[in-house]
Amino acid sequence: MSLRISRLHATEILDSRARPTLEVSLLTPDGHRAVAGVPSGASTGTREARELRDGDPERFGGQGVSQAVEHVNTTIAEAVVGRSFPHSAALDAILVELDGTENKERLGANAVTGVSMAAARAFALAEAEPLWQWIARQAGTEARLPVPHFNVLNGGAHAANGVDFQEFMIAPLGAPSLPEAVREAAEVYGRLKARLAAAGLDTGLGDEGGFAPALDRPEQVLEHLVAAIEGAGHTAGSEGIAIAIDPAASEFYREGLYHVAGKKLTAEALIDRYEELVDRFPIWSIEDGLAEDDWDGWGRLTSRLGERVQVMGDDIFVTNPGIISEAIGSGIGNSALIKVNQIGTLSETLEAMQLCRNAGYTQMVSHRSGETPDSFIADLAVGTGCGQLKSGAPARGERVAKYNRLIDISEDRPDLAYGLA
Question: Which residues bind Mg(2+) (predicted)?
Fold first, then answer.
């Protein structure tokens, strides 16, 4: 069924970090209204699609998005309103053509992403389908409820503490169902808070709802996590609750060396440290273990640990089909983090995920540090059947919205498989 757009409008709203973002609203002649809230990252890859920010220091400290809003309401609206599109890929192609730059920097990736997301919702409404089911048909995939990965302790760019690694996540791999996975994570989160408080550590929250205590070494964090998992009555490991880490190594890579816990490490030394962590703790996934431009190091990391853990690329891949193809050909990583706003359109995102599936690379759909209550990514994870989603801690409304959406889907469709693809 084709989609005809009768009105397209964007406005400036706030994200979860009190920074501006876009809300895009799309109307169809039959009265359907589809709305999308655009996420924004803090730890970003240099090659990902570019947000458009105003740069006016007198307004939101230069972070305003009024220009991106204007592009939706004029340039994009003039090109799409009154037209019919046979499928979302056709509309996305118009967006890419209108922008005309490699990284969506003319119109702004935030403008393009908002329109692409809203259009996908509108197509699903027109077909009278849940968004996840419509996505599954577009992608040619079997829908599946994903294992949620909860960022329960923050460091790096997401917190004002001394922990260089950015995210420490718990993953209920052994949970029998999606609701049980959420329950287990909430129990561990509560136990971790109590443990940190008993140790005299701060239980304030980082950008993604995880705790941000004054710790210095990743080993300290992992010890607390294992104790919290076991203290909540669960098993630490792949049969119960495993751990995933996102060091976001580009953030602490300077002049060819990795600065971790007061030490300057070569890529080889950092890989040695990861191997020690995997030996000692129930870590099943390492995201952005090395810097985005350290491709030689990535090759060695994949060779050393790729048979034992997910070696997942985020900043290095930026959901870009061209970069992912190059990485696959070079044997870099075995998994990709997926963020729609890194590439700009849903169609390009689905292309990136298809490349990964064809090559046997796993995928994890992800939120950003700056979020809205929009739960689009929950439907994306289910529809593509990738088996993994991360959306922060089991706390803060903009994070919980995604997990609650998964629970809603599981209630509506208890026949859907749950777990890793």
Answer: 246, 287, 314
Distance from C-alpha of 387 to C-alpha of 417, rounded to nearest angstrom = 9
| DSSP code of residue 45 | -
105 is catalytic: no
What value does the mean pLDDT take over residues 24-43? 93
Known binding positions for Mg(2+): 246, 287, 314
- Axis-axis angle for helices 346-359, 109-126 (nearest 10): 80
- Tell me which of 23, 51, 251, 339 is the catalytic residue: 339
Residue 30 CA, distance from chain mean position: 33
pTM recorded for the entire structure? 0.96
Domains parsed from the chain with CATH numbers: 3-128 (3.30.390.10), 138-419 (3.20.20.120)
Residues of the binding site: 158, 166-167, 246, 287, 314, 339, 366-369, 390
Say which residue, 214 or 54, is predicted with more confidence: 54
Mean pLDDT score, 216-232: 96
Distance CA 338, CA 45 (A): 13
- Name the active-site residue from 184, 208, 348, 351: 208
- pLDDT at residue 1, rounded to an integer: 75
Tens of pLDDT, residues 359-387: 999 999 999 999 999 999 999 999 999 99
| Burial class of 369 by CB neighbour count within 10 A (0 to 12, 13 to 18, 19+) | buried
DSSP state, 375?
-
